[in-house]
Amino acid sequence: MNWKTSLLVLMSFALMNTSCGVYSFTGASISPNIETISIQTFYNNSPLGPSNMSPLFTEKIKDYYLRNTSLTLVDGEGDLQLEGSIDNYTLTPVAVSASESASQVDLTSLTRITIYVSATYTNLEDDQFDFDQRFSFFKDFDQNREDLSANEEEFVNEIFDQIILDIFNSSVANW
User: For this UniProt entry, which residues form the secretion signal (predicted)?
Assistant: First the structure.
């Protein structure tokens, strides 16, 4: 091994040992002192949407943190604390399709489902990462090709996945 290779190996080890926290391949950057997280039920305060949104979102976000961090989930008083609510579920027309006849009404062809979630994140180790924020995401679908009642669960899951990723990135990934 020549001196350049030895120097490169030595510098690599030095860089790996000087990090500020624990970094994982998921993007989570969590202090080694933090071991637990508590995630409270995200209650559904929305007047519309499927009735199972509260347990669905709560279980999906718990699963995401457990799969992508080494944190232990506790019922309360975790080193990291996350709580919130599903605030709104809206259906909004995005595009109108012209009817084929002048005697017929123009209809909405493209509709947007938007879900809004409020989240409060508390880091007991370092309060500079705390936030109280609203997250939202949407899914557009063509009513002429996709029936809402048949596809609503899939649409809601897709929206929740993105909102959970945004909350995760804002909390433990520090993005």
Answer: 1-24
